[in-house]
Amino acid sequence: MKPLEQIFPAERAARYREKGYWTGETFPALLRERAERFGDRTALVHRDTRISYARMAEAAQRFGAGLLAQGLKPGDRVLIQLGNTPEFFTAAFGLFAAGMIPVYALPAHRRTEIEHLLTRSEACGLIIPDKADGYDYRALAAELWDVVPGLKHVIVAGDPAETGFAAMAEIDGDPATLPEDPDPQSVAFLQISGGSTGLSKLIPRTHDDYIYTLRESARICGLTPDSVFLAVLPVGHNFTMSSPGTYGAFYAGATVVLGHSPVPDAAFPLIAKEGVTITALVPPLALLWLDAAERLKPEIPTLEVLQVGGAKFLSESARRVKPVLGCTLQQVFGMAEGLVNYTRLDDDEETIVTTQGRPISPDDEILVLDDAGTPVPDGTPGHLLTRGPYTINGYHDEPGANARSFENDHYRSGDIVIRRADGYLTVQGRAGDHINRAGEKISAEEVEDHLLAHPGVFDAVVVSIPDAHLGERICAFVKPRDGQTLKPVELRKFMRARQIAAFKIPDEIRFVDGFGITAVGKISRRQLRSQLRAEVLADEAAQQEQTA
């Protein structure tokens, strides 16, 4: 297996330790210590089940020991594709306890994404639900079993049926067999990046760097043992995990309530029932909650903070949060690669509604550069580059992406931002061919590749279009082959059959007779995407003028 590592330059690593950012904490120790300190206090609420810190820790340790008894070894990589259920945390913390490496996937991922993640991570195990939202994950695992040579263990949270896979509930072992805690600077887990091209890249995060973000996020977001965090976004997503998310709530000894649906009709009663104090949404859901709250007038007096992140939240919508929901808005702008920015709870209203916050750490170093790589003055848009005590220095096994994404010891995020003199950032959009649809980062190139696989498609170009609800929507321009007549519904059906996540299916499909070419006779896809995007925006502006 290719080794997992995330190496920080020695001078910076020494500085981060000296300043107390890295304290040598590890994830196995974190849960053990919380169980000792908070014992019978509620860690998790799921439907009518309440799980204490002590019970959560014991379940994780016994599961981790059970994995060792099954023949897995410390250092093995295991992909987790579970939704918002207690089993997610049993699996993740069980893997930590056993010295194994969780690889986080999303419930929406299908065969294309899961096969890629298993192969690229060299995972030997896969943990799935039996069924969720009408989808049978066991059938997916059965397909992967035959095509991923390294896959040796499939564990089902639920009923394995006739698959022969292991039932998660039956995996049990003696915690005395667990290994010693790992090196705090070793890789704790692999997250996924949206990627600017192709399928997701793998992001190695260390115990030291990630736990620092949990500690500081919990502090910045005002979490205490009396806080109640509602998770309605997928718990395998970095935002829901650490900003402050579920892991940040556990760090603070707070309670995590697992929501089965983010829609207002489900979430509002849950907030009232459990006394939720803080929750996190992406902008489309925040708009849905605001509209519903204006109609329903829900009684949710305990809600103190609504976080909105994953994509830019327009200021006009941001201004509605406090008067409509009666709570403080906290904007969050971050990335699984590291850098996280928050508006602070005591910021003035204008800062809260017009910026996406400032970094966690005093040692988050920010560069805002023009196209030539020259720093721009504050107040001027530019490319965001960053480094710091929790921003990675490289993807796993991605030399090409690393060459593109890391410059002079800084990570190039792909975002265009404006920095104020006080360090607050306002996000202007994406610099590359990368679509941020409702918080999911999608490669235009990947969507194009799926469209081009259709026998009736000669060429396809995919662009991002600003959208009031989604942040950005996916618009595909398709040139059919000569003599072919295509319909959008046909192409969407074809893409779904390729077993990709539903959020990658184009929202809009436009058919064209051809695309422009450069002076040397080749299509410059980046220029073409920019040109087509401008045409759509011009069309929409003209339509608005006609209806005004």
TrEMBL record:
InterPro entries: AMP-bd_C (IPR025110), AMP-bd_C_sf (IPR045851), AMP-binding_CS (IPR020845), AMP-dep_synth/lig_dom (IPR000873), ATP-dep_AMP-bd_enzyme (IPR050237). Pfam families: AMP-binding, AMP-binding_C. Coiled coil: none annotated. PROSITE patterns: AMP_BINDING. Residues 446-522 form the AMP-binding enzyme C-terminal domain. GO terms for molecular function: ligase activity, forming carbon-sulfur bonds. Residues 31-396 form the AMP-dependent synthetase/ligase domain. PANTHER family: LONG-CHAIN-FATTY-ACID--COA LIGASE, SURFACTIN SYNTHASE SUBUNIT 1. This is AMP-binding protein. It comes from Pseudooceanicola albus.
